[in-house]
């Protein structure tokens, strides 16, 4: 148990990230009252059935009333509308943050609505799975993962530190970054991989020469790895593509350029070039494992997991 | 324990696949003598230290002498040279097979050297991890995975059935396929995914705007998934690219075409098209899990594996 960091916390949106936050806030005892709000009655009922919070409401204004910390966990395309809706109900001195995968767009959408008497501090925990909804969350999701805060110039440093302590209490490691740089970094480490995964699964789905059932039967030879990212929430990923367009298009251009050169090496049978390209990628995974960002087990630990 | 299927089995090549075969052959008691041969003294010593077989030799001719089943597990580019080398020493009536990821090229390389008095039956177990070498193998590797045999016209059916029983005793599910169709199927389910993974890891490695350490720190947001395939054996994958060129180039063209259309949807902010593209890919993973080819756990069971 950590200490009470905020008398009342409001979570707007209770999907994978929101419900994981609810679970770790409860486990660590970080608040005296956890208010949960989401647009859909069905999702709200699910959150209540899972006992994720202390109060539940469809209107986010009820949840943020008197809340000292408000965390918005909705698809990035909805953050502006939510900000506009909750603004009048926000408590003076409250910290308002989010978990969106794009920051420049979220800031552009939310900041105009934020009253001067609150601390608006955008954030992004680098954690997740391919699952969605309140039942998919778990308290360990943020353990050892990085959370990036992108505070705006002039933000109260004490408020930034307070939000940082909250994420650390949730198990996160903390970073701060310029919003535009965040969007470039995420475009390569998260957005491009998801887009490529969605694309290759789509390509395999559309072939005439190879049947769908063949793709599924033999997927253990590599293809199945891509289907995990491609099983992520379509609304979340549609919004990310719409709201981090420039950085994503830049990374896509680099990727396609490199792929054309690899394709040329295959066409011309340039074995030395292929060997060189396939060699220097190996160290990257080793570094990720050493950085504690990946399990040190073959095949993502699939074999080990099935032994449980 | 299954019954003795072959009095003597020779494994040429003792990497991930060869050493996994050795372990399951030993566990199931499928032979009275398991002979192991590999080019490198160091690898041979490693296999001996791991007690993978009954005899060990650098010269594959010594291993195949009197062997009733010979399985060649080497990079596909070396299968012709191995076939030529062992041909004079093969026992009449012996079954000679391989585990290569490309079949048309392996057949073209090996068949000319195969004496009429042996049964040459190409094969490919659809199983593996990103690890290489004798220490990386494990007896369960083939459990529930498919093994594809691509027998040539006029092959003795009894011999094909005997090889099939061997793979079933190793835990595999069995399929037969035309070699050229196999190469198209593998191009999409295995070769394209590996090439794309190698490429995206390469792209991330070459950026000026995002540092290597940022890519590693934040890789849990998607990128790390690709580093597994991109950590596979470079020689094996160089050879696959050189020996399944046409099918791979065909799949790369389809992939790039689809990616261009996805890129266009991002550029023009076509949210409906993006949503549609990101929706119909979800069922594919579900089908793979239902087919028993993927663990039914979020995040490949990484979380579950670390709980061991």
UniProtKB/TrEMBL annotation, chains A, B:
The keyword Lipoprotein does not apply. Keywords: Oxidoreductase. Residues 7-296 form the Prephenate/arogenate dehydrogenase domain. SUPFAM superfamilies: 6-phosphogluconate dehydrogenase C-terminal domain-like (SSF48179), NAD(P)-binding Rossmann-fold domains (SSF51735). It holds the Pfam family PDH_C. InterPro entries: 6-PGluconate_DH-like_C_sf, NAD(P)-bd_dom_sf, PDH_C, PDH_N, Preph/Arog_dehydrog, Prephen_DH. The keyword Oxidoreductase applies. PANTHER family: PREPHENATE DEHYDROGENASE, PREPHENATE DEHYDROGENASE [NADP(+)]. NCBIfam families: PRK07502.1 (NF005694). This is Prephenate/arogenate dehydrogenase family protein. It comes from Tianweitania aestuarii.
